[in-house]
Amino acid sequence: MHEIQASLHPDENAPVVNPNIYGHFAEHLGRGIYEGLWVGLDSEIPNRKGLRKDVVDALKELCIPVLRWPGGCFADEYHWKDGVGPRESRKRVYNTHWGGVVENNHFGTHEFFELCEQLGCKTYICGNVGSGAVQEMSEWVEYMTSPSESPMADWRRQNGRQDPWKIDYFGVGNESWGCGGHMRPEYYADEYRRYNTFVRTYGPNPIERIACGANATDYKWTEVLMERAHQHMNGLSLHNYTLLDEKWPPSGSSTEFSEQEWFSILKAAVAMDDLIVKHSTVMDQFDAERRVGLVVDEWGTWYPEEPATVRGFLFQQNTLRDALVAALHFHIFHRHSARVTMANIAQMVNVLQAMVLTEGPGMLRTPTYWVFEIFKLHQGGRLVPIHLKGPEVHGLPAASVSVTEKDGSYTLTAVNIDPNDGATIAIDLKARLVSKARILTAAQMNSHNTFDQPNHVQPVEFVGYSLSESKLHLNLPSKSIVAVDLTF
Hints:
With 488 residues, the protein is of the alpha/beta class. The chain contains 9 helices and 27 strands. It has helices at residues 53-60, 109-119, 134-145, 151-158, 185-197, 219-229, 259-286, 320-335, 367-375; strands spanning 2-8, 23-25, 47-48, 51-52, 66-69, 93-94, 102-103, 122-127, 169-172, 208-215, 235-242, 293-301, 340-346, 356-359, 362-365, 382-383, 386-389, 392-393, 396-397, 399-406, 409-416, 423-428, 433-440, 460-461, 465-468, 471-476, 480-487. Strand 18 and strand 19 (396-397) form a beta hairpin.
């Protein structure tokens, strides 16, 4: 049993956890959009305006703050005009990145905004720099946001949308160092400045612009972009996936793994902290006031596709191990919320570390889904810095804890990464009452939900706590995640 002491250090100047840290990502990849989100108006699967009712309803429970679309690598070959107008007339194209399937463009601009309206979330659109022209990007922004009489706004009205939409965030290209054009940072910095000039604000709502940032440890990319273009951006992205042994290409299995591989994945997850520290240090050289946010708009576990699934569709199962990866990431993002203003897990449905898996009319919530659900009260809370003192396992802290305060309440989440031993945590805090406590755990490291057993891994009431004289004692079972809501 690991014994851990925790002390809170309330600070009224501590940063607020931006709700966008709990953002999501949906790309035209595998069954992420089609079958996962979009089934069409004539589908026998219940839908609202072509969007799966069961999936959207499940996702709404997470209070999703923002959704990034249409990619990913797909974004830099996406030509938006192919995806508007009557669906039967839309251009059919070849998806060169993901599975070599035909993209019918039935899910386009109008459908994306409809999805965001149904979810009640902000919009984050990624534009095409790799194979698209400045004019194409400029006209897309005009089509979506112009309230005036203009060619693109008039076309939008002809296609059924009278009022302009609001773009909250616009990404100028995706992975321009790789699938988005294999550019040098100096070249992309100039291209960013050029394209960004024509992402104009047409109405009363300003658009926050996100520049393509680094791949994992490419600190030079961050340095060049900040030096040459920081004054023209609101955010700089960072992509980093959790890989077995931190090596590309993905290896291992999402469901069949050893204890050594359990810790390898968790070590790769915790490495996100070092990445953020180092990229933030570079950004601080040019932006000491931290006006530019670090946007981790692709993160999550990546394993080889499940056996007998389509190559290139990136469909993987999702176990308790992935839930711990998500929880550890959120604790890291919380700690760095003075710089990290958004994070978008890859991806929302049926792809990589998904919230939801579908199979025909069936749908299940993954263990990662439940982490988002039990952590959602952290959104918009003020960070309460915490210091932990306790043992390590396999070179990692045995436990991780995060606390936020909002509206007279604490939200505390705790993770025990040890798959074998429990942990006790004692925390001094001015709390009078536990209003809700839940735990996410399972008997096996690789426990997961299937369509035969869709509720095998899900939160249950947590009773392993006591509260006396403002001191909270937690008894965490092995490999567990706990969320406790308290009033004071």
